[in-house]
Amino acid sequence: MNEILASSLRDAANIDVFNTMRPNPVKLSVLKKFFEDEDESAVDLLSRRHTIEIDEGFRVRPATGSMKLITDNCMIDYHLTVANSIGLGSLLPDAANSPWFCLNLNLTMPYRNFKGKHAMVGFDTKGRMLYIGQCRSEDVFLAMAPNDFVSGHYQHCAAGYFSGPSVMSQRHYRQMVMMMAHFLAEIPACGYSNQVDVYEMDLNVPKPNWSLVTNVL
């Protein structure tokens, strides 16, 4: 380790040479064996660039079962929860009572893109995602999932797959806002209301006048 640190400080050009090397694949099972055998030759791998290939035995395929994460000694830098049914139930805490639970709803940012580079959403996110706020410091997106995905008859897409920007179309965004407005107006003792029972919201005008229809924004 001392030699690695010294060489990096001594000659920065070595970094450029390393970065231009052609990566060689190394299987995760090989790295596991290095670790279990306490094999010091594993350090030799640092002299070349490598890409890690995950063996089939280390993979958990989508929709093939459940998995428990023990995070006592780990740090998670990306966490995604996808609901398995229609609704916002996945936001709710797993407790009978949770007085500190809070959803900071924000329906005014339809331009915010879903950053799911490594996310296993399960379907193409193009034009399907709407940012609706934060819950426990986590971003919350409302997704318009394909009917086949909801019914369980859908070929899951690879993690991070998308064929275009995730932002919903103007029409779908306004439909989602009015759907949320309808739900919020049904909550007792809350200051949300809609002006009419039939929501005559124009889905195409450049600047809709929300105040004539609802006060949820």
How would you sum up this structure, described in words?
There is one protein chain. The protein is of the alpha+beta class and 217 residues long. The protein has a domain at 2-58. The protein has five helices and five strands. The chain has helices at residues 2-10, 13-19, 28-37, 147-151, 170-185; strands at 24-27, 50-53, 103-105, 129-135, 138-143. The strands form two sheets. Strands 3-4-5 form a three-stranded antiparallel sheet, with no helix packed on it. It has a two-stranded parallel sheet with strand order 1-2. A hairpin with a 2-residue loop joins β4 (129-135) and β5. The radius of gyration is 24 Å and the shape is elongated. The N and C termini lie far apart (56 Å). The relative contact order is 0.09.
Summarize the structure.
The chain has 217 residues and is an alpha+beta fold. It has 5 helices and 5 strands.
Uncertain stretches: none
Number of strands: 5
Taking strands numbered 1, 2, ... along the chain, how are they ordered across the largest sheet? 3-4-5
- How many H/I helical runs? 5
**Alpha-carbon distance between the termini?**
56 Å
Instruction: Decide which structural class fits the backbone.
Output: alpha+beta
Biggest sheet overview: 3 strands, antiparallel
| Strand fraction | 5-15%
